[in-house]
């Protein structure tokens, strides 16, 4: 997952250099669309979530899910998304304030 997200970020940086940047919403959509079948439930849940998530939050969320999912089935993960999304939003706000 780390390599995938790093690759997405590298491509985004290259596009920005060529004056053809992706906005954050498109970056999130492309990232979600490129996830493996293992993340189908997560991708669907995030595509239909009422509040948009930015790439930084998506990055943190996917890495967190990767760590905790090793002991879970993928059908359990969507039930954790609201809690994890709330956590990443609070963590990002706390980090930005400090």
Detailed description of the structure:
Helices cover 70% and strands 0% of the residues. The relative contact order is 0.13. The N and C termini lie far apart (28 Å). The chain is globular, with a radius of gyration of 14 Å. The chain is mostly helical. The protein has 5 helices and no strands.
Mean pLDDT: 76
The shape, in one word, is globular
Q: What would you call the structural class? A: mainly alpha
State which percent range the strand residues make up: under 5%
List the uncertain runs: 90-98
Task: Report the biggest beta sheet as strand number plus sense, adding barrel if it closes.
Answer: none
Q: How much helicity do the residues have?
A: over 70%
Put simply, the count of helices is 5
Radius of gyration: 14 Å
Calculate the terminal CA-CA distance, rounded to whole Å.
Answer: 28 Å
What is the ordering of alpha helices and beta strands? HHHHH
Number of strands: 0
Main features:
globular; disordered C terminus; 98 residues; 5 helices; mainly alpha
């Amino acid at each position: 997952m780390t390599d995938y997200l790093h690759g997405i970020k590298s491509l985004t940086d290259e596009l920005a250099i060529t004056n053809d940047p992706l906005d954050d919403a498109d970056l999130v959509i492309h990232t979600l669309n490129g996830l493996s079948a293992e993340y189908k439930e997560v991708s669907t849940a995030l595509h239909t979530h009422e509040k948009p998530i930015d790439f930084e939050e998506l990055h943190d969320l996917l890495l967190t899910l990767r760590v905790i999912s090793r002991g879970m089935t993928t059908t359990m993960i969507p039930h954790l998304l609201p809690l994890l999304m709330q956590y990443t939003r609070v963590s990002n706000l706390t980090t930005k304030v400090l």
